[in-house]
Amino acid sequence: MGGLNDPDLTVAEFNAPDSVVAGQAFEVSYKVTNLGPGAAKWAWVDRVYYSADSAYSEDDRELGMSPHFVLSMPAGGYYRNTMAVTVPGGIPAGPVMTANETVQVSWTVANTGTETASAPWEDAGFLSSDDTLDPGSGDGSPFVAD
């Protein structure tokens, strides 16, 4: 348990790309502020981890580290740092898929009208790089359901 005059180094800002490619380096930048009443008077190491959720656990993977050798950082003091990190291969992708990945897509069609639907019909979807279907979405080619 910390003392009443201990430093409290806290990440106040963190910036990273919205998406990354496994195996390729990218930069993260952050600001660390001493929120405690005491000065930080020792060396420490900043570490960046990949986590599948918002909580640190033993299965999270370290992506990079940056040691700090300072004489003192006063209460209220801060520093900024930029670190190059790489997400290794073999980590499960999040909700965003990358090129050349196979993605299973399924949906259900229901006739909610009062008339009988006449066959045949075709369902199609479009791949998009965002949540909006517009001319900039994918290559404009639909994928067609079997």
Brief summary of the model shown:
With 146 residues, this protein is mainly beta.
Q: Averaged pLDDT, please?
A: 75
Low-confidence residue ranges: 96-100
Give the class from helix and strand content and strand pairing.
mainly beta
Shape: elongated
The major sheet is characterized as: 3 strands, antiparallel
What's the arrangement of secondary structure elements?
Layout: E1 9-15, E2 25-34, E3 44-50, E4 61-68, E5 78-86, E6 124-126, E7 142-144
Write a structural description.
The chain is mainly beta and 146 residues long. The protein has a domain at 9-86: Sandwich (Immunoglobulin-like). It has no helices and seven strands. The protein has a three-stranded antiparallel beta sheet, with no helix packed on it. A two-stranded antiparallel sheet has the order 3-4. Strands 6-7 form a two-stranded antiparallel ribbon. The radius of gyration is 24 Å and the shape is elongated. Residues 96-100 have low confidence and may be disordered.
